[in-house]
Design brief:
Collagenase (Catalytic Domain); four-stranded mixed sheet; alpha/beta; about 160 residues
Length: about 160
């Protein structure tokens, strides 16, 4: 594997564009999750409002209401050797609200959501307890490389 993952990011802004992280930050956070796992990847991140998030959440997960991040892994036939990883839909309002409620720096929570969603695209999950523990430990370690504290530490 290369020492540096090549990442092509398609950033789509479909929400109020004020107070958003920069494209460079989204690239850094996604690369942090991908580094050492893939030599190259293509990823789309769509920043959505609560209406679009709720629609996607209902359509693809049969759950009502908006959510922080939805992951849509690329579903390519194995014979197509393309670096397409998939798509993330991240709801700006939910991320900002959660950061406030959890007393976290907003950019730190954005980083966590991008890493969390990208790990889902890489095949990690948190349905079973052992999978959840593995994924959380990996998220904590990856965020630590960015000098971001454990997002799962309870609020005191």
């Amino acid at each position: 594997m290369n020492t540096e993952t090549e990442l092509e990011l398609d950033l789509q802004i479909a929400c109020d564009a004020t107070t958003l992280p920069t494209e460079a930050q989204f690239v850094l956070w996604a690369k942090t999750a991908i580094q050492g796992r893939l030599d190259e990847a293509e990823l789309s991140i769509r920043l959505v409002d609560e209406v679009e998030s709720a629609e996607l959440n209902m359509q693809y997960r049969q759950k009502s209401g908006p959510t922080n991040v939805l992951s849509f892994p690329a579903d390519l036939p194995p014979e197509l050797e393309l670096p397409l990883l998939g798509d993330l839909a991240i709801c700006k309002q939910v991320v900002e609200r959660e950061a406030n409620e959890q007393h976290k720096a907003c950019l730190d929570h954005w980083a966590h959501m991008v890493i969390h969603g990208t790990l889902h695209l890489l095949g990690y999950d948190h349905i079973a307890d052992d999978e959840a523990e593995e994924m959380e430990a990996l998220e904590i370690a990856l965020l630590k490389t960015l000098n971001i504290s454990n997002p799962y530490t309870p609020i005191l």
